[in-house]
Specification:
This protein is α+β, with helices and mostly antiparallel strands. The protein is about 25% helix and about 15% strand.
Length: about 90
């Protein structure tokens, strides 16, 4: 929590947008999974990723798979995959 990682984005026009009430509800329900430090795309509330109401589905704009190997320019995405693998269970 509170870590800053460098993850590529690959979108020109995409950003998260919702009305102020929805943003406040997402924040109040602790459903904002990621935020941008520099907000390169104008996402409302600096939101880069959100969780579904049951917190089992993650939607995000950044691409951690593009930062999972040093040969591709970075490894910050590995932390996300390690964290996810620690909480995922087989069906």
């Amino acid at each position: 929590v509170g870590d800053v990682i460098d993850i590529p984005i690959a979108h020109h026009d995409g950003n998260y947008f919702a009305d102020d009430e929805t943003i406040a509800r997402l924040q109040g329900e602790d459903r904002v999974a990621f935020t941008y430090t520099d907000n390169p795309n104008g996402a409302k509330g600096d939101i880069a990723g959100i969780l579904s109401a049951n917190k089992r589905v993650l939607g995000m704009m950044p691409h951690p798979e593009r930062a999972a190997d040093a040969g591709h320019g970075g490894t910050d995405g590995q932390a996300l995959f390690r964290a996810l693998s620690g909480v995922l269970t087989p069906a």
